[in-house]
């Protein structure tokens, strides 16, 4: 008899298996572990093994209370203006046009002038941040698709050059609109100025959503994650795990602080695993050592050609 292979529900996970799953049995173990924990109502956390293993160094990042005014002012504006109404408008606007046509490397170069106002940890330009992330992933021997995820994950910040209203609808951590704003978001007090926080249809645990409706059905605040996910979902050969890393990498209240569990379905735990495997390379690779862009270009062009068409409709 022919071996029927893993059950369809397991297959679903295998096709999106995390970066460190070497074999089918690893993947099945991982899935069983997730399922067991979910069934018992336990929190699922995954420790990614990376080069950044010094806890003392890790504590130097994301210190928002000590951040400069540039960061604080950014979040006040973002938290006041990211409403359900704006979100719907931004999504309709996204679908209404193509903003530019260019290749992935050209897009990376275009980001050269952008310095992210929301980021307390880096003041290097975005091209440097992308290469720092990709190089850290490569150094740890992770697969090519994940190196590519590192290389492109912040390309959604191109939105800034495509008629964004400022940086508040492009960068910064993301959160859900249409339900209450949890304290797990940085500077939670600033939501007082967001009209949605006074709206009884929105300001509850579930707001406009239903229990365990799945992350897929939530409106995440509009910015570079969601935009880039929408672009690459149809215009790349990236595996689902890479798309998860792109789509949720700024969703810190969810992936780091444990908020929004009331909306999760089983497959969202696989996405969580992907995002947690990616996060150290995004966050802890931030340093002032500038990568040598021209030296690295040929290697990354090779990867770009494997995963993307020559021209993307942005
Ligand atoms: O300030 C940063 C930056 O904007 C990143 O690109 C984003 O992914 C992070 O969530 C945010 O904390
Ligand atoms: Fe980002
Ligand atoms: Fe990043």
Automatic annotation (TrEMBL):
Pathway membership: Polyol metabolism; myo-inositol degradation into D-glucuronate; D-glucuronate from myo-inositol: step 1/1
Primary location group: cytoplasm
Species this protein is from: Wallemia mellicola (strain ATCC MYA-4683 / CBS 633.66) (Wallemia sebi (CBS 633.66))
Keyword list, A-Z: Cytoplasm, Iron, Metal-binding, Oxidoreductase
Record Pfam families: MIOX
Broadest EC class assigned to this enzyme: oxidoreductase
Name used for this protein in its record: Inositol oxygenase
Listed EC numbers: 1.13.99.1
A molecular function GO annotation: inositol oxygenase activity
Source organism superkingdom: Eukaryota
Cellular compartment(s): Cytoplasm
Cofactor details (free text): Binds 2 iron ions per subunit.
Gene3D superfamilies reported for this sequence: Hypothetical protein af1432
Similarity annotation: Belongs to the myo-inositol oxygenase family.
